[in-house]
Design a protein that fits this description.
5 helices, 2 domains, about 150 residues, mainly alpha
């Protein structure tokens, strides 16, 4: 068979086989028994692989949509609570107030290591000011003769 003479033409022939656009007579002429068996095995494997990919893509997207749906429900309930509180139709319980304050505090002090370089810079600036002030006072005392 000419289609199997090099790699590119073989790949093209296999692609045409998956699309069912090929000459089956050449395959049967090459070998009457082995040609149809190889064709059937190839089609079954290709369909199995493509079907597996299709199912895995659908399954992955289904799980992502399900997770987003849960997040959307939580967001919706939070928005409704805040809207009703803003209208004054619903009063906040002590537990909700404590939970909100706790959440604010956790967000404020969530990861203090991120602010560490800024805090070190502030400390160095303060120490530098103290050193400069003490140096100036020492110079003034020496000028005064004390």
């Amino acid at each position: 068979m000419y289609e199997c003479s090099n790699l590119i033409s073989t790949a093209q022939m296999l692609f045409e086989m998956t699309l069912m656009k090929f000459d089956a007579h050449e395959l049967i002429e090459a070998d009457a028994n082995l040609g149809p068996i190889c064709f059937a095995i190839f089609i079954i494997l290709v369909v199995f692989v493509c079907l597996s990919m299709f199912i895995s893509i659908i399954n992955d997207n289904f799980h992502q949509a399900k997770e987003k749906n849960i997040e959307n429900q939580v967001m919706w309930s939070l928005m409704m609570k805040r809207f009703l509180r803003w209208l004054g139709l619903k009063k906040s319980s002590r537990a909700e107030i404590y939970a909100e304050n706790d959440a604010r505090m956790r967000l404020k002090y969530l990861d203090p290591i991120e602010d560490f370089p800024e805090k070190i810079d502030q400390l160095l600036i303060a120490l530098n000011k103290i050193y400069i002030n003490q140096s100036n006072e020492l110079k003034q005392l020496r000028k005064a003769g004390i």
